[in-house]
Amino acid sequence: MEANEGGQVKTAFIGLGAMGYPIAGHIAKKFETLVYNRTFAKAQAHAAEFGSRAVGLEQTAEAQVLFTCVPISKDVDELARQLLPHLRSGAVWVDHTSGEPALAKETAALLATKGVTYLDAPLSGGVAGAKNAKATVMVGGDKAAFERVKPVMETYAAKIVQVGPLGAGHAVKAVNNALLAVNLWALSEGMVALVQQGVDAGLALEVINASSGRSNVSENLFGSRVVSRAFPNTFALGLLAKDLGIANQVFQEAGTPAPLLRQLREFFEIAKLEIGSTDVDHTAVARLLERWAGVEIH
Ligand code: NDP
User: Fold this and answer.
1) What pTM was estimated for this model as a whole?
2) CB neighbours of residue 210 within 10 Å
3) What is the atom index within ligand 1 of the atom nearest the CA of 235?
4) How far apart are CA 37 and CA 17, in angstroms?
5) Among 14, 60, 66, 226, fewest CB within 10 Å belongs to which?
């Protein structure tokens, strides 16, 4: 990858949401970084905070490494189509969206017509991981392109693993988030039953977290979001439900049995309908189980 005149790689980041904003901030501290956001004021705020440069969408095509972190693969594909006439051969497009393997392959083929290599590279670790530069990145795609962009990823990630060919990153992310969802739903079911029987939620959690039923949900989410009643909105319910849809595509394509994880999608679709919003934090499913049980977890 050719460096720019300053001897550094020029990067561009598209999508300054809950994840993209802090991630692009870490990149901007080490690399020249152009930022674009649909709501432009966020790009201007980012430039003021991190020394990145807020630009129009077309100008992001000047970069040698382009990042996207937007809700769904369709958004990425539309951005790729809009940018296609302007892109430069040799660039690498790193997609941090939690997306669909099949559509990502189509986007990759489109970008390849301009000599641009696409990597699916979903993130994990939540907003806290993004802010603390401790994100996990799971990458699918060309190994040589991955090696070229890895130094940029190291500015915000503590764990970076190439998990396989194109689409493999999205597939691993979908399965990971299905596991997050199953733990969240299952712990909510268990806790409403315990609270209904007079058990203190905090004490139950303390014991579970020192026992074999613990998970990231029980250790890092449930106490601070549900038992505390804070429900801070950092990862939207709609995004997790979207990931379960992608997981179902992965199971479908694999043709392997997944009766539990496939069913989970239905649970979260019902949750979206019953809660009446996709914008609430994903931990709001606990509130739904509380409503069904007629108890509050605290
Ligand atoms: P947010 O909703 O906070 O941000 C989405 C970003 O994408 C915003 O910058 C938004 O712009 C932009 N955007 C939305 N639609 C379009 C579009 N059609 N074209 C261009 N830009 C668009 O999402 P997150 O940052 O939470 O999530 C981004 C991705 O990361 C998702 O795929 C999510 O599943 C994944 N993820 C999220 C995690 C989390 O904890 N939040 C953790 C790990 C992965 P605007 O400002 O104008 O709305």
Assistant:
1) 0.96
2) 8
3) 41
4) 8
5) 60
| Residue recorded with tokens 């038992």 | 227
Each residue's pLDDT tens digit, 67-117:
999 999 999 999 999 999 999 999 999 999 999 999 999 999 999 999 999
Amino acid identity of residue 167, one-letter, is G
Cβ-based neighbours of 248, under 8 Å, separated by 6 or more: 262, 265
Name the residue with the closest Cα to ligand 1, atom 5: 17
How close is the Cα of 149 to the center of ligand 1, in Å? Answer: 21
Q: Ligand 1 in contact with 71 (CB < 6 A)?
A: yes
